[in-house]
Design the sequence.
């Protein structure tokens, strides 16, 4: 296609030509005191009686140009209107066509030209600005990798990213894009994962770490084994999810659709009735113009597209408009303690010596020896510390018998070692004369998990492990409160004492401790009965039922899990806790924009209707206000494509440049 | 994506410049006219065009050209 053809087919050719013709028409009227305004023919249009706006009863040269302007701008509109009618749709094009043709019939050439010209220019502007609301998605698509360097038969070979084979080794050099989802098999490197997780700080990758297609190397050299290619990459899944979400209709949208379906025909009937009763053709035609439900129809989709797109750029995937609306109403957030508030990796924090004949290291040695053959998660921190202090057990571990809910019994070189809680000691008849229970109590009240170590029926000491509180956890809770969440609730299987210590440190409002997985669902349901709209945050594995019951299920660190990306109502791609309050804030802003847009659209309709009946609103003024309202609605939605102060997204300047951008496709989010 | 003579190829194009729901009908008509196109679905909000077509008779480039004729720029995508 050559440039001229492109321009003719583009959005701007029609309004430009039409506008020029309008200017020529005015020039002809004004020039040389109207001397240039030759008479072409006598009047051929119908008289509009009292409302005639045409000065003379002749068809002049100026009229010819004005009529031409109307025809240029109106031709496409009429074609569209006929097409819509054929598929039984009464749309805005039909209203404008009827109004413009009517205006021509009664000799109002200026009105006809103005209405069609404004409509055409409004449309061209809408096309350009609407593209900007979709900019976030365009950027996501743009980060998709094109080429990959693979190792085949020991040779480095450049192939299109989609043609890498599963299990092949791909090389990721400094500055290059990661072409596939995969696992690092050799090398180290810093990877910028902003395109996936919205985090701007590069992540250090070492052997057996996961990397994602569309992320970029900021240093180092990685060999990656491909585990996902093309449509089977996390990036592709994100793009799909965002598109599905943007196409999904919100509840409010359904209402608006119903409204506009009867609104347009109703206005046509009203116009006809008004025209018949008042015998005023101009009034009827003006009513037709303002009957266009433009801003109403578009007000919600633009907000949703912009809001969901913005969220996606920040590593937050929201399933659709409906979920945005629900998220904006969230009053309570339930978080699973492990992995959300705490690291999920217990550390050994205390070793209390009870037997005066022993020292700290010896207690640790006994504990480590007993735990050597244990599979229990609490064994790891003990063994890690023993290894670090050089007292790790050697040789083959003895037999370990787990006692569920109490601890373990282990045989170490013929001696019986117990590690567990006071009930375990009771069960094995160990007499507690060295305050082991008291020591474990005080450790537990500090939020730690104590384990009494007893050798051959004597308690020798107490070791305690604790899960580390995540650095961002208190900040997350505070920001959730700022975002309007009344209650942040912690759910955990831990004992109440442990849970309370963590709750205190993070500012949690309500604690539900000692829960079995199935209890979590009951807590969520209970909160809903209290009238809360609740979001549940979890990893999606143990909390699946609770996540499904909650009004909004949020998956953390979803980038590594295809299932989470596909199913969570909100998937936070990264593992950044602060994304949770950010997503609620974004949902609220988006819903606010939706409401503002509907209000703008409705007020426009009411004001115009009142203006027509009160007089003063002509056809062209009506069209001007109408098109302006559409543009205001789009501009309002575009505010969402910019980040607010709480965002953790990266500045625009560092983003991948979009290839071959048209001016209309320029991305607009501010740095 | 593999194309055989029996199963239609599913192609997704991403377009620019969608401004109103009326663009949808315009594109669906232009693309639907092509011989070898079995179905075409235009998604307005995300500006996607999904086409099921017989790749033997109508290529992806033909689809892009048809969309261009309707006045929109579209690019095929891998997913």
Sequence:
């Amino acid at each position: 296609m050559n440039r001229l053809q492109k321009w003719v087919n583009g959005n701007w050719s029609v309004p430009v030509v039409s506008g020029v013709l309008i200017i020529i028409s005015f020039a002809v009227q004004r020039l040389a005191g109207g001397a240039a305004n030759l008479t072409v023919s006598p009047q051929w249009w119908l008289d509009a009686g009292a409302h005639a706006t045409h000065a003379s009863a002749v068809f002049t040269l100026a009229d010819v140009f004005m009529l031409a302007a109307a025809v240029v701008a109106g031709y496409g509109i009429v074609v569209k209107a006929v097409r819509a009618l054929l598929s039984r749709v009464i749309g805005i094009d039909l209203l404008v066509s009827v109004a413009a043709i009517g205006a021509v019939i009664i000799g109002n050439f200026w009105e006809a030209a103005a209405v069609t010209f404004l409509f055409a220019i409004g449309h061209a502007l809408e096309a350009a600005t609407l593209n900007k609301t979709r900019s976030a998605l365009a950027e996501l698509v743009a980060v998709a990798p094109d080429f990959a360097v693979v190792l085949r038969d020991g040779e480095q070979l450049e192939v299109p990213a989609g043609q890498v084979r599963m299990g092949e080794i791909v090389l990721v050099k400094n500055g290059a894009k990661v072409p596939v989802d995969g696992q690092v098999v050799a090398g180290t490197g810093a990877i910028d994962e902003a395109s996936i997780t919205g985090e701007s700080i590069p992540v250090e990758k070492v052997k057996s770490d996961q990397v994602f297609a569309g992320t970029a190397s900021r240093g180092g050299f990685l060999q990656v084994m491909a585990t996902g290619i093309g449509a089977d990459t996390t990036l592709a899944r994100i793009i799909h999810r965002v598109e599905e979400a943007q196409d999904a209709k919100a509840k409010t949208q359904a209402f608006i659709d119903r409204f506009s379906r009867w609104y347009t025909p109703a206005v046509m009937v009203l116009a006809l009735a008004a025209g018949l009763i008042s015998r005023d053709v101009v009034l009827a035609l003006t009513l037709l113009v303002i009957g266009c439900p433009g801003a109403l129809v578009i007000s919600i989709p633009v907000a949703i597209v912009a809001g969901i797109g913005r969220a996606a750029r920040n590593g937050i995937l929201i399933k659709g408009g409906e979920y945005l609306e629900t998220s904006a109403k969230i009053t309570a957030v339930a978080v699973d303690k492990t992995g959300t508030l705490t690291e999920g990796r217990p550390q050994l924090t205390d070793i209390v010596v009870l037997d005066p004949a022993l020292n700290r290291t010896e207690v640790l040695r006994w504990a480590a020896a007993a735990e050597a053959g244990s599979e229990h998660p609490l064994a790891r921190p003990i063994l890690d510390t023993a290894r670090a202090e050089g007292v790790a057990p050697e040789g083959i571990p003895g037999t370990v018998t787990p006692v569920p809910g109490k601890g373990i019994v282990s045989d170490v070189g013929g001696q019986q070692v117990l590690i567990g809680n006071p009930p375990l000691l009771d069960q094995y008849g160990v007499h507690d004369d060295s305050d082991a229970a008291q020591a474990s109590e005080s450790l537990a009240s500090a939020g730690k998990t104590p384990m009494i170590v007893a050798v051959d029926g004597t308690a020798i000491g107490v070791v305690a492990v604790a899960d580390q509180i995540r650095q961002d956890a208190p900040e997350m809770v505070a920001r959730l409160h700022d975002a309007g969440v009344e209650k942040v609730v912690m759910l955990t299987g831990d004992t109440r004492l442990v849970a309370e210590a963590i709750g205190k440190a993070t500012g949690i409002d309500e604690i539900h401790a000692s829960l079995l997985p199935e209890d979590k669902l009951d807590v969520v349901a209970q909160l809903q009965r209290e009238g809360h709209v609740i979001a549940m945050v979890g990893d999606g594995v143990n909390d699946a039922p609770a996540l499904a019951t909650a009004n909004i299920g949020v998956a953390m660190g979803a980038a590594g899990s295809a299932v989470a990306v596909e199913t969570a109502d909100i998937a936070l791609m990264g593992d950044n806790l602060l994304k949770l309050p950010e997503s609620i804030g974004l949902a609220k802003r988006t819903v606010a924009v939706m409401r503002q847009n509907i209000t703008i659209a409705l007020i426009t309709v009411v004001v115009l209707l009142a203006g027509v009946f009160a007089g003063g609103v002509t056809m062209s003024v009506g069209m001007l206000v109408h098109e302006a309202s559409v543009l205001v609605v789009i501009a309002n939605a575009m505010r969402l494509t910019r980040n607010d102060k709480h965002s953790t997204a990266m500045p625009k300047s560092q983003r991948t440049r979009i290839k071959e951008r048209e001016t209309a496709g320029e991305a607009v989010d501010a740095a | 994506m593999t194309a055989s003579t029996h199963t239609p190829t599913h192609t997704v194009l991403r377009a620019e410049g969608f401004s109103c729901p009326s663009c949808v009908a315009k594109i669906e008509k232009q693309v639907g006219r092509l011989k070898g196109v079995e179905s075409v679905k235009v998604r307005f909000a995300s500006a996607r065009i999904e086409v099921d077509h017989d790749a033997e008779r109508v290529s992806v480039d033909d689809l892009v050209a048809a969309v261009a004729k309707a006045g929109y720029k579209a690019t095929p995508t891998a997913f």
